[in-house]
Amino acid sequence: MNDPAFPLLRNGRTDDVDAVLALWRRAEASPSSTESAADVLGLLERDPDALILAEAGGEIVGSLIVGWDGWRATFYRLAVDPGHRRRGLAGTLVREGEKRLAALGARRLNAIAESHKPAAMAFWASAGYELQTSRSRFVKNLP
Ligand SMILES: CC(C)(COP(=O)(O)OP(=O)(O)OC[C@H]1O[C@@H](n2cnc3c(N)ncnc32)[C@H](O)[C@@H]1OP(=O)(O)O)[C@@H](O)C(=O)NCCC(=O)NCCS
């Protein structure tokens, strides 16, 4: 078991799914329509490197999904356990994601943040991401 004060980063595995869903609830990450255990398992099956987790004292305390489609890259589900915030963990997760994406050849990275969440907005700005006000996001859920 690693030191709770120094979370380790590792890839998410199929047996982490319940703990990851619990982290997202604790972190009050806004629920999306693709957030069941089956959705997370589908992600891991498609890309075993897509889910980066931070583990401390045997607990999952941080997550980041790294999406790469060969054209653009997008980060999803950046979440840090409330008890581990403001210690640079989100920054560590994003830097790891950026490193992986650079190795894959990605050059343009997107992060979708909810504008009513000041911590999320402040985080991405502090991580060097530029807020685009000239674009809108269109979304459709398939049945
Ligand atoms: C947003 C979130 C991931 C940040 O995690 P974190 O590990 O606390 O972030 P870090 O410690 O790496 O913060 C780095 C910098 O981001 C900014 N920041 C982070 N949280 C902030 C807050 N609550 N208020 C203001 N600035 C904040 C600061 O500039 C901070 O640097 P500092 O601590 O030296 O001032 C975390 O608050 C969270 O999980 N929130 C709920 C889920 C969510 O909104 N996720 C984002 C989805 S896009």
List the ions, cofactors and other small molecules found in this model. coenzyme A
Strand-residue fraction? 15-25%
CATH architecture: 3-Layer(aba) Sandwich
* Total strand segments: 5
Strand order of the largest sheet: 1-2-3-4-5
Termini, distance in Å?
A: 42 Å
As a percent range, the share of helical residues equals 25-40%
According to CATH, the homologous superfamily is: Gcn5-related N-acetyltransferase (GNAT)
Biggest sheet descriptor: 5 strands, mixed
Radius of gyration: 15 Å
Q: Return the average pLDDT rounded to an integer.
A: 94
Series of H and E elements: EHHEEEHEH
Counting DSSP H or I runs of 4 or more residues, the number of helices is 4
Describe the structure.
The protein has 143 residues and is an alpha+beta fold. The chain has four helices and five strands. The chain has a single domain (8-126), classed as 3-Layer(aba) Sandwich (Aminopeptidase). It has a five-stranded mixed sheet with strand order 1-2-3-4-5. Bound molecules: coenzyme A. Coenzyme A binds next to strand 4, helix 3 and helix 4.
